[in-house]
Amino acid sequence: MKFSYSTAWVLQKLLALIFLILLIYLTFSLNHISLNNYIETSNWFSDKKNSFLFFVLLTSIIFHSNLGLNSIIDDYIHKKESKKIIIVLKNSFLIIIYIIATISLILLI
Q1: % pLDDT > 90, the chain
Q2: Do the Cβ atoms of 18 and 60 come closer than 8 Å?
Q3: Which of 55, 56, 86, 57 has the alpha carbon at shortest distance from 71?
Q4: What per-residue string of b and e applies to 33-70 under the rule 16 or more CB within 10 Å gives b?
Q5: I need a labelling partner for 95 at 20 to 30 A (CA). Which of 23, 59, 63, 68 fits?
Q6: d(CA 46, CA 108)
Q7: What is d(CA 28, CA 74) in angstroms, rounded to the nearest whole number?
Q8: Cα dihedral 32, 62, 64, 48 sign
Q9: How large is the average pLDDT for residues 10-24?
Q10: CA distances from 69 to 12, 61, 64, 72, 100 (A)
């Protein structure tokens, strides 16, 4: 989906705010458990609220990264063919990361 530059800028700032707030919450929430202990970590992710907030954090980070990378690609890559290849590689990479993280989160629940 192609956004205008002003819409992409506002959306990127909104996503940054969302993931900053969630990152602070999750940092304090995870501070009370031992991440070296699989059972404690698994129990933390078993809580539906924690899993949902982690999923929202993951989603906002992926979309924020996508918008930022699109902006960089538009600004610095001028050859259309190179731009298409880089965008396909970027989108493939982000989709693979998102799918792996989502499946891992589902398996932990």
Answers
A1: 67
A2: yes
A3: 86
A4: eeeeeeeeeeebbeeeebbebbbebbbbbbbbbbbebb
A5: 23
A6: 7
A7: 37
A8: negative
A9: 93
A10: 11, 12, 9, 5, 20
